[in-house]
Fold:
Amino acid sequence: MPFLSLSFYNFRNLKNDTIDLLSKEVYFVGKNGQGKSNILESLYYCSYGNSFRTHTDTDIIRTGEKNFSVKSFYQEESGASRSVNIFYEDGKKRIEKNGKVVKDRKDLINTMPCILFCHDDLEFVTGEPERRRFFLDQSLSMYDVLYIDVIRRYKQTLKNRNILLKEKKTEMLDIYDVQLVNNGIEIQRKRKITVFKFNDIFTKIYEDVTGINGVTIVYEPSWKLSPEDKDTKKFDENYILNILRSKREQDLIMGTSLSGPHRDRIRFIKDGKPFVPVASMGQRRLIALLMRVSQAVYFSQITGKKPVLLMDDVMLELDPDKRQKLTSMLPDYDQLFCTFLPGEPYERYRHSTTKVFTIEKGEWHE
Structure:
């Protein structure tokens, strides 16, 4: 479901105008700070109702202004033109899909599924465990709306339980423990299945690009399987509930829940040992990049749909051979948006129908 056009009003430094995006590949070329990434941000914003660069919508408003909007038209598989418009006015955000107000951002899922490649993806490799959990949950949330509900219920229960722990109130903990386990088990089950399928993609891609074999992703759930469930790969509720209750005294001392999916670990392993600590910076960056490629392939395999790919200066640090291998491994996409600095050999990747825009001071020229 490709984008047809975008219209901006006070969206960062972009001029208040409409840009025509009707092409399978669209390149934005310009120096740093001119607005290339702002356009990719607006595409992502229309796809998911939030930004990948900030959690605060006011950061998006052009300096000196109070409101902003971004309007998008996209094409459905039937060929019909549809719209997603987002308005930020008087401190409130309003999302409209085909003229109707969207009350929950999850209703945008699968409208225009975008996969973003950017420098911050390195955090999925070298950052805190929370970032790797986020990547895994994002991969699931792109197609599984029910998973979004489970994650929300778990986080709300966890928040309530932590409040009781901090206040040393135990009378409601049994109830919250049951709710936490019920939702937590579902999260762990889906994460486990996803990592298993993801490895089939990632390990092969990483070897094809680097020549290094056997690099795998290992999921280490905070709540371990009960011994009798190891073969069936099921999670026993009573067994895990007992684990949680056995840790309650420690939870009360610390004032927080010390076990659960919010403490899960995801590691990169080779030959039974952690790979990231011995990997070079180039190898780490490549892992992050190929994680995104794997995410795109995984999404296509699971849904049978083509994603929209947003690539923000991510090929700059790759040598020509790895760039060629990377582009050949991308799944078929509905649309590809790439940003390049002047002087980069983007001509090697363009097709006869590729749109190329020069971006300067928030304005674009084809």
